[in-house]
Amino acid sequence: MAFSTLSMPRLPLLLHFQRPKLSFLTSNLQTPFDQFPHLSTLNPRHHQRSSMKAQASVSDLGIVERAIQLVQSSPPTWQSALLSNIIIFTLGSPLLVSGLSLSGIGAAFLLGTLTWRAFGSSGFLLVATYFVIGTAATKVKMAQKEAQGVAEKRKGRRGPGSVIGSSAAGCVCAFLSINGVGGEAFTRLWELAFVASFCTKLSDTVSSEIGKAYGKTTYLVTTFKVVPRGTEGAVSAEGTLAGLLASVLLAFVGYLKD
């Protein structure tokens, strides 16, 4: 089944590929002077301080690596969903703050926990990809959008209303999947509907934001009359194409298999 990846509890290749990098970096930090032995004799105190910093860095990296291993091996239960989201939201806080208000982050945390419980790490990856692409599109030509009065409020940082509105259909699918509504025969249907809901919303967001930034001619969808960029219900060829590509990309993420 094309969307069977959402039922798999392990993290996709994204985190899997990071682990060798951590090991490589750890090995380098453990022996910072091996490649330059003559430097160790120049300042013993500096060498000692550097070694202590390196050991601290190694310890921090070890914690992160163990956290990643824990997330990878955790089955989709409420406990693992909560723990995984705490880890990911802590590590990804700089990105979250750039795209969401504080109350928006709270709403996103609830969404992430529900998604992980219903569809595992692969479902979470889908929502995370949606957030990254949507945030990037919102930030495109922000100064121009602000000057024209068509930019999102708070420099594009979306609040809980936007999070809930974007994920409402997906949350319904998640609850139906968790409670086994329809039995095994409907499991794949809830997964497919979950992916489709976010693809649809991402297409809407990207087409709107790219249309505001690059749309040369915008038409009101109900009358096809030419209207200014940023008009509610207006579409452009540039925005429509960007939205289509974004939805296809997100659908591909939903199709990925570990």
UniProtKB/TrEMBL annotation:
Subcellular localization, as worded in the UniProt entry: Membrane
Chain segments annotated as transmembrane: 86-112, 118-138, 159-178, 234-256
Keyword field: Membrane, Transmembrane, Transmembrane helix
A Pfam family the protein falls into: DUF92
Record keyword Flavoprotein present: no
The UniProt record lists the keyword Membrane: yes
Principal subcellular localisation of the protein: membrane
One Gene Ontology cellular component annotation held by this UniProt entry: membrane
Membrane disposition: Multi-pass membrane protein
Annotated family: Belongs to the TMEM19 family.
Protein name: Integral membrane family protein
